[in-house]
Amino acid sequence: MRYHLRIARARLQGSVDTHCTVLNAPTIEAAIDRAVAIVDSVLDGRPGVATLTSPYRGLIWAHRQNLPAPAWP
């Protein structure tokens, strides 16, 4: 089964790096395990978000790391 992993990582200058990759995994659990490992290495402690999606099931897993609290009006 094919899964799409998208990662947005904040840079020191205030811009954002994006990373997209396709994962092939036999199960959803295996895809999530691979996604967690990839996200940990790409974000490397920096603020960012990641999503794992499937063309058939939509959003499967999401991760948010070290993001500032949202500003409330």
Structural summary, described in words:
The radius of gyration is 13 Å and the shape is elongated. The protein is built from one helix and four strands. The N and C termini lie far apart (43 Å). It has a four-stranded antiparallel beta sheet, covered by helices on one side. With 73 residues, it is of the alpha+beta class.
Keywords for this entry:
73 residues, alpha+beta, 1 helix, 4 strands, elongated
Radius of gyration: 13 Å
Cα separation of the termini: 43 Å
Strands in their spatial order, largest beta sheet: 2-1-3-4
Taking pLDDT < 50 over at least 5 consecutive residues as the criterion, the unreliable ranges are none
Estimated structural class? alpha+beta
Shape: elongated
Mean pLDDT: 91
Q: Helical segment tally?
A: 1
User: Which percent range describes the beta-strand content?
Assistant: over 45%
Q: Count of DSSP E strands? A: 4
Order of helices and strands: EEHEE
The level of helicity is: 10-25%
Offer a concise description of the structure.
By secondary structure, the chain is an alpha+beta fold. It is 22% helix and 45% strand.
What's the arrangement of secondary structure elements?
Layout: E1 2-10, E2 16-24, H1 28-43, E3 48-54, E4 58-65
Antiparallel strand pairs: 1-2, 1-3, 3-4
